[in-house]
Amino acid sequence: MKDETIFFAVSEIKVNTAVHLLKEAGIHAHIINKMDSAHANLFGEIQIIVAKEDEAKAKELLKEAEIL
Asked: What residues make up the domain containing 27?
């Protein structure tokens, strides 16, 4: 199973909202936090990863919610 990054942001609130929305729709999503804590989280990003087969549905949901 191949996973795809469908969204990335620097706001934890925005990422958590997106993941909650995806999980409500039955799409398993996980977060990879690549923020650099040594620099007060000024560099890096937080990614949302879903299975390749859920990519289109996940992107559509996030677009409808005006998150993507």
From this structure: 3-64
